[in-house]
Automatic annotation (TrEMBL):
Protein name (record): Large ribosomal subunit protein bL25
Organism of this sequence: Paenibacillus uliginis N3/975
UniProt-listed Pfam families: Ribosomal_L25p, Ribosomal_TL5_C
Chain ranges of the Large ribosomal subunit protein bL25 L25 domain: 10-94
Protein family membership: Belongs to the bacterial ribosomal protein bL25 family. CTC subfamily.
Limits of the Large ribosomal subunit protein bL25 beta domain: 103-185
GO biological process: translation
Length: 205
């Protein structure tokens, strides 16, 4: 992997053999089988260096980089999918994109701050770690920031609370809950028992 100006460049080789043994040989030699598809073109089977590609598994899902394939102009791509087996990456899908057409990708959420409610015994619960967005390739953020610092016990952070870059739209509804601060179950159960005991005492009196 190299950098040319602001563009990341990843070298790739064309795959001509598609047997299980051929794929295993690629992995044993530090490579990773993959395929390039999309943008109204035929899919291209490729292999890339695993270590170099691994650096792009996070940012490469929303940050465009060039795949350098012998005999071809640099191909602008995003990492669309990564397949794993037994915790090891075994295959990668590259999405060939046009810089003039919007794309839909999944981007990780980056939670920031310490929820106020956790200082009073509440527990921050994360419901979502990533969101699907759509926008022009050049406008896609690497992560989406989600500030939880203002959450009290019982509060929820929803999609409507997010601040998105101009030109980016979300696939999720504005009401979808991303995170919340809740009372620990043991404390909640104890409070419920106390309320029942008080009700019973009032009835007797």
């Amino acid at each position: 992997m190299s950098s040319k100006g602001n563009n990341v460049q990843l070298a790739a080789e064309i795959r001509n053999e598609f047997t299980r043994a051929a794929r295993r040989s690629i992995r044993q030699n530090g490579g990773l089988p993959g395929v390039v598809y999309g943008s109204d073109s035929e899919s291209i089977p490729v292999s890339v260096n695993l270590k170099e590609t691994a650096r792009l598994f996070q940012t490469g899902r929303s940050e465009v980089f060039d795949l350098n394939i012998p005999g071809s102009d640099p191909v602008p791509v995003l990492i669309k999918d990564v397949q794993k087996r037994g915790g090891k990456v075994i295959h990668v899908d590259f999405l060939h994109i046009s810089m003039n057409k919007s794309v839909r990708v999944t981007i990780p959420l980056e939670y920031q701050g310490e929820a106020i409610g956790t200082k009073s015994g509440g527990i921050l619960q994360i419901q979502e770690t990533e969101l699907e967005v759509e926008g022009m390739p050049g406008d896609l953020p690497v992560t989406i920031e989600a500030d939880v610092s203002g959450l009290e016990i019982g509060d929820k952070l929803t999609v409507a609370d997010l601040k998105l870059p101009s030109g980016i739209t979300l696939g999720a509804t504005s009401e979808e809950v991303l995170a919340s601060v809740n009372i620990p179950r043991a404390v909640e159960a104890a409070q419920a028992n106390d309320e029942k005991a008080e009700e019973a005492s009032e009835i007797k009196s």
